Amino acid sequence: MRTLVIAEEARFIRAGIPCVAVQFLRRTEHRPFASALPGQIHFPVLRSQPSLGSARATGQENRTPPGVLARLAELYQCSVADLVIDLADYSNLDTARATSGDLNGLWLSRYSYFSTGRDASLQGEHTIRLHHTGSRLHGTNDPADGESRLTLDLSVSGAIATGTWKERTAPTGYYRGAVYHGTIQLVVSPHARGMNGRWLGFGKNFIVNSGDWHLEWLEA
User: For 74-125, how does the pLDDT look when each residue is reduced to its tens digit (9 = 90+)?
Assistant: First the structure.
């Protein structure tokens, strides 16, 4: 019977059933699979098990052995964290919920944008000093004469930084001192030495633009 179940589960993978489906399957107990036609996949008949909270209340908590999770992860071609990340006891495995760490320091900021006037994809680069206090993250660069001034004002929740950006372009540059601003969201790396995300902001042609934004930690 176990061989039949494993074989049917493998068919789910070949059919493109996503790994997140396992998060539901592992909470349930299934009976033998049945196919009406050769090669046709049918989901098993599922019987819900008590939730983790109710199991604790009745003293019937039954944790899945780590070895079983490792085998399921191998079968579904994903990590063990992907299988259990939505369960309260394992939420610490989710990098988006992890603490961001100390983000104070000097950072190299790079963002990409498309210039319609020059018909080219370009990159803006600044070295900014970030100040991390509580959940607030504020940063700005120290522009030399003729350079643009960039300001970031973010709120950090776990490993997600969300907020606004503002740039006063170089007075002698292509945009002649024009001021642009918008929103930004970044995901902080587990070691708090990098941030990657996207920006959103208006352009001079009355459209809202977007692009990639990356920050790399340089020094404290």
Answer: 887 777 777 766 665 555 555 555 556 899 999 999 999 999 889 999 999 9
Do 153 and 200 sit in the same domain of this protein? yes
d(CA 7, CA 18): 17
- Prediction pTM value: 0.58
How far, in Å, CA of 188 to CA of 210, rounded?
A: 19
| Segments of the chain assigned E as strands | 28-30, 46-48, 105-115, 120-133, 136-141, 149-157, 160-168, 179-188, 194-202, 208-219
Tell me the C-alpha distance between 217 and 194, whole Å. Answer: 6
Q: What is the pLDDT of residues 181-206, one digit of tens each?
A: 999 999 999 889 999 999 999 987 78
Give the length of the chain: 220
Cα(14)–Cα(23) distance, integer angstroms: 18
Residue written as token pair 């494993």:
6
Range of the domain at 56: 2-93
Does 136 lie in the same domain as 62? no
122 and 164 inside one domain = yes
Same domain, 14 and 70: yes
Has residue 53 been placed in a domain?
yes
Residue 205: CATH number of its domain: 2.40.160.90
Token pair in block for residue 26: 């592992």
Residues 6+ apart with CB under 8 A from 217: 105, 106, 107, 192, 193, 194
Tally the domains of the chain.
2
Q: For residue 7, how far is the Cα from the chain centroid?
A: 33
